[in-house]
Each structure stands twice: as C-alpha cells, then as structure tokens.
Amino acid sequence: MKIDGYCDERFISVKQAFEKNFKLGLEVGASFAVSLNGELVVDIWGGFSDSAKTKIWEKDSIVNVFSTTKIMTALCIHLLIDRGLIDVDAPVAKYWPEFAQAGKENVLIKHLMSHSAGLPGFDEKIPIEALYDWDRITGLLASQKPWWKSGTKIGYHMITFGYLLGELVRRVTRKSLGEFFRDEIAVPFNIDFHIGLSESYDSRVASIITPEEVFSKWLIILAKLIFKKAVKVYYNPNLENTDFNDRGWRSAEIPASNGHGNARSIAQVGSILACGGMFDKKMILKLSTVEKAIEPQISGRDVVMMYAPAKFGLGFGLLNDDLLLGPRSFYWSGAGGSLCIMDLEKKLSIGYAMNKMYMKGKDPRTGKLIKAVWDSINSE
What we know:
By secondary structure, the chain is of the alpha+beta class. It has a single domain (61-357), classed as DD-peptidase/beta-lactamase superfamily (Beta-lactamase, 3-Layer(aba) Sandwich). The chain is 31% helix and 16% strand. The protein is built from 12 helices and 13 strands. The protein has a 6-stranded antiparallel beta sheet, with helices on both faces. α1 (12-23) runs antiparallel to α12, α2 (69-82) packs parallel to α5 and α4 (134-143) crosses α5 (160-173). The longest helix has 14 residues, at 69-82. The two termini are 29 Å apart.
C-alpha cells in the first residue's frame, strides 16, 4: 500500500504505524496528521475512498468525521466567549428565551458545553429526517424537561450538543453554526472542514463504510436492561440503519455529528487551541480563553455512555487513558475512529479521519498511531 504525503523524519514511526494498519486490513482509506508548534510535521493519507476500492483516497479527500465535529462546534462558542458575546456562566435563556421552558431557566451555557445539561436525547420519538429540520429539533429541546438537574450528572449529548450550541450561535450572530465556522475559521485560514456540505464537494467525499452491526447484540441487550438512558439517546432517532452517504445527511447542519474534513483540517483546527489561540501568526483566541476551556467542569460516571468514567472541560474531553493524554491534553473523537487530540503544553495537535468504521470497543488502529506520536515527541 502506497502512503502519500509528507512526514518529518522525526515521525517516521508514525508513518510506519499508519502503513501497518493498511497491511493488517484495518483500513480502507484514511488520513493522519500532526501539527507541532503550528506546523504540519505529518500529513499523510492512503487507501481508497470507496468500499469497492476503485477510487483512490487523494490529498483533498474528505469524509464524515461524526463527533469529532464537536471540536469545531466548541471552538465557535469559544470565539464568541473570547469576544465577550457569550458568558459561559450565564443561563442559556439569556440568549435563547424560549429555552427557559420546563424548568430550564437555570441551565447554564457551561452545562451545555460539559454534557451535564440533562438534555442528551429527545422525549418525543423522531425519525432520522427530523435531524435535518433545525427549527423542529431546537423547538423540541427548548420545550423539553431535563432528564436530571443540570450540572449534577454527566450524560453524553451525542446529537443534541450541536443543536444546543448551534442555536446559541444563531441567536448571537444571526448565522448558522456552519456559516459562522465557515466565515470565521474555514475560509480565512483555508481549512478544509465543512458543517453542512454543499453538493459541489461530493466528488471528493469518501464513502463511510459501516459494519453490519453498529452496536454488538450483547451490548444492545445489556443497554435495554440496564442503561435505559443510553437506549433513549442511541435509538431516537435510530442511527443504526442510517445511510451516512446520503445527500440529506451530508447537506444538513448537525454540528455534533456530520462535519466533513480530513486529518489535515482536523489537526489545523486543533492547532488553534493547542497553540493557545494562535494560527498562521494570527491571534484567534486569547490564551486565557483556551486555559479556561480546559478547566475541569465536571467528572464522574457518564449515565449515557454506560457509566464510563468521564471528565469534561468546556466542550472537550479531559480523560481517556487509551490516548496517553498528558496533564494539558484535551480531545474528542467520532464514531468509528476519527479523532482530534490537542496538547497545550507541547503545542501539539493530532488529526485522524478514515472511512472504515470500527465499532467494537477499543480501536486497534489509533492506539498504535498515538503511541508513535508521543514516542516521537518524547524522544526529542
């Protein structure tokens, strides 16, 4: 398998680990990138963009990266915080008055950003197509009662995170979150990442390759018996049989789940945060804003993610032993494997995007890649 792109000789073990994943049959098409001190030191890709392996994964191939999109969504909120347009300690209803319904008048913006607001799913049964109707979804969330007292529990807001924060962006800027990200980040800094993908990009979008069973049968049975909140989140709407290559899914703005990009663009966005708000010699955020973003807001067992241990800052995960995170590291990842890791101390960001989803627990691909990056950094 030919691996294309650039790899600094200090990170040759990263390229070797990436290539080995293909040799082991773990990948169909993928990209991996590392930015250090604001410079791309690894920007590699390989494989195919389709399951039939007829279309080569190119330098500019992009793919749906699912929840890694939450990094971009959180960045948009931090831009508004940095400009004094949003107060993270203020009630959501200050900016979105309708949100105060059903006892939510004291839900704070920081609760939305730390997955502790109590709105991880929908009470009303909805079809997948409802996610393409912004007003319908935000209306449901505005009228819904929280599943727990906000700020007291962690429950991963898998889909709702993007609508809740995206509506804040819309109320403050009069732009959708996808438009705001495009105008403030993607276009000015030539970052190839999209939330709400125009049909004009379809020719370079890699097809998502899903396993026959997104969730293993034993996990579904266990969840239905014990983890009822997880079932309400994962199966309303039922994403298991969703065609993530459908034009409706691609074009909608689902800012928690359907951003399209590649490892390079993920690492570039991550670099803004990892470098304390600097990118391309421009100050996008104050360092103090980034510092506050990674202050722990809540920790404990996630009632949606089957009581897995979790710790959140403002929009970012702070706890994951598998990723070998340092004391100043933060991250988020997407269903099937994509991820973004940032380290403020080392000014390091890592991006990974692929089209073959892995849904059986710990991903055998990323662990090797991340270890190779950290080993390369620490050997300098």
